[in-house]
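Final paragraph of the annual report: two paired records, presented back to back.
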Amino acid sequence: MKSALTLAVLVFTLVPGLAFAHGFGQRIDLPVPLYLYLFGAGVVVALSFILLSVVPKKFTKALYEYPNISLSRRGWFKILSSSWVVQSLKLFFILVLFTAVASGIWGDQNPAFNMLPTVVWVLFAVGVPFASAAVGNIWRVINPFRTLFEYVEALLRRGRVTVNEHPWPIAWGVWPAFALFFAFRWVENVFLDSATPQPLAMLVLLYAVVTFTGMAFFGKEVWLKHGDPFSVFFSFLSRFSITETKKVGEKIEVHLRPPAVGLLQGEANVSQTAFVLLMLSSVAADGMLGTPFFQNLFSSLLALGLPWAIVGTVGLAGLFVVFASVYAIFSFLTKWISSDGSATLEVARRFIYSLLPISIAYEIAHYLSILVVEGQRILYLVSDPFGRGWNLFGTANYEISYTVLNLKMLWNVQVGLIVIGHVIAVIISHALAERYFKDSRKTLISQYPMLILMIFYSVLSLWIMAQPIVAAG
């Protein structure tokens, strides 16, 4: 049993390879016990619900009829979005991709001195989601795989070569993207060589083959909208952002808008509902699977001789099933308590976007330390991407500052993010209910189960966040 426990600890230390960034090797004493933070978070979420019950309907109307400002008509934005700037940006990220993959194949195989793990697990897996949720869907612009495919398309057009595109089966929805996103989270949380440069480079190349094949077979826009896991993931996150695109006449303009109002637009289908739930469960998995309860459970399973690949996969899939089941139960309770004649699945689809602020808040709170601390690695890696002793930009001797984040400050930021995210979720859920029921009493009653769910998620999120840094007792 002791050896199995040791193996379990090693697993959660090594997966993903940069997981050591989640903590700082020390724990802190809070000014008040943890349970008071959990209780306080729940109270704040509940109070936000009470306030919503007394505010006039004008508030909800304002969320749907929000003000927006055209950025495309501003001089500075015209410069930033000009063809030469955008094309230069696209070429830069192609260069980053090629350099990182080459580093993974031929560079130093120590993850700390190889550019690829930092580019994939810090800049891409953490930085792009942060930017997507805050600013907008930047991946649509900087996606190097899309840009490379567009270059190939242009060459084929010059040679008058046509490729037949196939229609996307309606029943598929975004299920291919769902499956591939689960595979990505599996690599992140289960695959033991997730940060080993050469295997990681092979996975990036495999993703490139799948992406180019999908775009060629179904068409670029269709595949990116339905089949590509990251394009779908970032498009969901960007619903929360402060920018949106609008068609004005014959032109597509970028507009500035209040945050989170994009969550009120459109209705999710079944596959999109499942994808959002996977976003929520998989980002929680990295924290939950590392808690003492799950470590003890997994060590017991490993002691029985079960391979880690099976244990980890079942754990990741099991969390999705649990999150989906809990959401289905509360969707049923919402339908039942409001005497709504809709099917439970329809109710689940109706309110699914209200969970996105929770997923985004947890994503930022959980991975903030990685971006701030481990993100510093790129400063010395960019000068010596292959570990050959180069110093191209004079930063090869940069040393990471692990004290750049104060643990108590980090905890307070995490608490604030989690609470704010859940309060926004309550507001979005209330606005969606008010639009559907058009009756104040039914709107209020229908939100009781969702309120309980939001409080539960807020307490659970904070408890998970506390495990690596908060001293017991």
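The closing record of the year follows.
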Amino acid sequence: MKAAVLKSLGSPLVIEDVPKPTIGTGEVVVDIVATRVLSYMNEVFDGTRNYALDLPVIPGPGGIGRVRAIGPDATKLSVGDWVFCDPTVRSRDDTVAPDIALQGLTATGPGGMRLQQHFRHGSFAEQMRLPTENVKRLGAIAPEEATQWCALGTLLVPYGGFLAANLRPGETVLVSGATGNFGSAAVSVALAMGAAGVVAPGRNERILADLVRRFGNRVRPVKLTGNEDHDREAMKRAAPGPIDCVFDIMPPSVSTEVVRAAIMTVRPYGRVVLMGGVGMAGGAGLELPYPWIMRNCISIHDVWMYPPDAASRLIALVRAGLLRLEEYETMAFDLDHANEAVAHAAANGGPFKLTVIRP
């Protein structure tokens, strides 16, 4: 089969024929129809992000495809089913604290690297092998719809954060990083889950206005000034009531003062979700005041990815019409032009933009 292979950091992807994946017990092989290209994939491939990858590897975190082969433990899947390939692979021998690898992207710790050695190859290929539990049925879709369904991979990240914080209908949310790719997805997911209002702070007034245009007056935009105290009070004033949950997904390049200003808008007994990149590039830590956390009974949820059942639950939100994949503007490339797709994703990584490879 044809695949895009990363052979060394800093080198282009090589398009070549590789052996087809072979199926084992507890595994499924999927024909990949469409797979998203992360906006920072170029930084993974050149080593800037320092992701743990056992090279050479076929990259690509998840995708949309059709089941080609199933193992004996699959009782609901059928050959030909349209499915979402969930890249979050978990070890099966410790359900309390499993090791995790993001198939085709990275891994954490020695256990995650052991997972990656087996489920190493991702979705930049004509076929992909996954654990059975990572293959989620979509129901019937048209082949051309597979491109937009790739947005699930982006939407799942904030959905996992809100599930961890037990976001409830009628609550008020603040999304720190609302003008970014994952932050704008968080706005749409929070509203789909029934948030009464979403405070959306940011510096880009055009993007803030676009969020209001897309989702209406439940979005409360706030233009940030860079003054921590001023911005904190402005965000509180914009909220329709006390802020129940703050969701942070700021990138590593953002200062800790900006992140702290947003986090400390949360009400007493409120919840904070940390899914961003603060400190990953070095520099100062977040330095939240211990007395403020303790005396206000603030719950802080540090979340990487999402629980195993999240993809199926998110698919149900889409099927119910509560979450619209049509918000996403897509650009598709074939597998022969995978390097061009990576460059396009880096240059076009804004809100509701999706770069896709269709093998």
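The chain has two domains: 2-151+328-358, 156-302. This concludes the annual technical report; the extension proposal builds directly on these records.
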